[in-house]
Q: What sequence folds into this?
């Protein structure tokens, strides 16, 4: 199927469906996938029976609220039980053509299986996101993501299906990646936000001006929150002279489940594949669209391992109003991970709040480290930063300015701000950067 390269939509009919029609299609798919899961996945048969619910109870989209939640623990507890794929799987192993696994950063790595149909629809969604940010067949694209079992690795196929010239970069060392960017002059790259910023810094220090010597026009970032933080996105754009677009994915579902458009007002989520709920993180109570809570996803078309009411652990909100770009699929706004949120003086603090402040400050590199600790049985936090080599201010002056800025933005100031020289923090990474160290001994429940 040939596409008009001037049409900004990959699938205009789907992407601009009136809300009523979109939800009608969602309901049809929801009824089918809940029935399929009940009849084919041992866990769902047992879970639904124990909860006293049946697939026939789905009459409207809101009826999904009658069904029990699952989470990462459910995946870990059922993985390998009864079969290689486990009790959440709804197809035999011979129907599975691909599996990815999670990083295991919050526990035992969990696998995500795909049938051929699941995988093909996954890649069509990736093509849709690439097209949405302006990638076209005449682009050269470097996929600088991990290919080792990571669900984002195969996303490069979506770019190939679109017609772009694809360079499977993977996790190359910075020097080698800069060589690729200079030699092949690609126009689009995908990596993490922290690495995009660090790579630009390394280019400048090695005598390469990303704006003049390279040809990157668009940078896709994912895996960390930075791409949805205005100050971080601007910092990356300033180094590269390129547009930055944030993508959001889950190893539990598929590569990029949501992506920015040109409006950069949240990330459109593939609502033809995912039903989104938002719940109160304390009570599990259903919240109205627009309210902030934990995002809960139900996969509508993935048959290898359906996820019915999966608690993502991500805190955010969904906006179901029509975007200025013309797309009608809802936009999610992610604030952070439930696991990363901490409370100081009754204020909920996300690392993304701190990052937004740090990235906006003049005279510091933008690198930071957060330490959470306890004092007198209460939570405190400290921030470590780097001062630019040419900053004439004293460390004390810089620390005071950053502390005041954090107090003004977040509402609670850090217990201390530690100032390092440029390069003094060990936070730079070729992949995701670890920026939060929890030193508390008490167990806090969020």
A:
């Amino acid at each position: 199927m040939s596409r008009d390269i001037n049409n900004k939509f990959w699938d205009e009919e789907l992407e601009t469906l009136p809300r009523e029609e979109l939800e009608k299609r969602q309901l049809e798919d929801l009824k089918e996938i809940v029935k399929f899961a009940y009849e084919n996945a041992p866990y769902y048969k047992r879970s639904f029976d124990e909860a006293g619910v049946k697939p026939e109870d789905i009459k409207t989209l809101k009826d999904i609220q009658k069904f029990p939640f699952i989470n990462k623990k459910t995946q870990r507890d059922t993985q390998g039980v009864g079969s290689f794929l486990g009790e959440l799987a709804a197809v035999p192993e011979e129907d599975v053509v691909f599996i990815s696994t999670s990083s295991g950063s919050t526990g035992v790595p969990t696998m995500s299986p795909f049938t051929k149909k699941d995988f093909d629809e996954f890649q069509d969604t990736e093509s849709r996101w690439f097209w949405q940010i302006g990638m076209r067949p005449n682009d050269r694209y470097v996929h600088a993501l991990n290919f080792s079992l990571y669900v984002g690795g195969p996303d490069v196929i979506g770019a190939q299906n679109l017609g772009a010239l694809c360079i499977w970069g993977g996790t190359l060392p910075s020097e080698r990646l800069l060589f690729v960017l200079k030699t092949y002059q690609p126009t689009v790259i995908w990596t993490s936000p922290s690495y995009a910023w660090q790579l630009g810094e390394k280019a400048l220090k090695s005598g390469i001006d990303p704006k003049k010597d390279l040809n990157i026009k668009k940078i896709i970032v994912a895996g960390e929150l930075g791409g949805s933080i205005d100050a971080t996105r601007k910092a990356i754009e300033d180094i590269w002279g390129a547009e930055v677009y944030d993508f959001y994915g889950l190893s539990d579902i598929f590569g990029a489940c949501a992506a920015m458009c040109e409006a950069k007002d949240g990330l459109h989520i593939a609502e033809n594949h995912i039903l989104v709920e938002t719940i109160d993180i304390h009570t599990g109570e259903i919240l109205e669209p627009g309210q902030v809570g934990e995002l809960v996803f139900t996969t509508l078309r993935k048959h290898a391992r359906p996820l019915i009411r999966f608690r993502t652990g991500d805190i955010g909100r969904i906006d179901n109003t029509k975007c200025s770009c013309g797309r009608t699929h809802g936009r999610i706004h992610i604030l952070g991970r439930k696991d990363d949120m901490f409370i100081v003086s009754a204020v909920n603090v996300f690392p993304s709040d701190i990052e937004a402040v740090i990235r906006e400050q003049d005279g510091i590199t933008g690198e930071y480290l957060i330490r959470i600790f306890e004092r007198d049985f209460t939570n405190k936090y400290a921030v470590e930063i780097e001062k630019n080599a040419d900053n004439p201010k004293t460390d004390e002056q810089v620390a005071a300015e950053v502390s005041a800025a954090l107090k003004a933005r977040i509402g609670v100031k850090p217990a201390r701000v530690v100032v390092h020289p440029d390069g003094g923090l060990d936070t730079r990474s070729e992949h995701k950067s670890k920026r939060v160290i929890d030193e508390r001994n008490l167990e806090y429940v969020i």
About this structure: Confidence is low (pLDDT under 50) at residues 442-446. The chain has two domains: 1-337, 342-438.
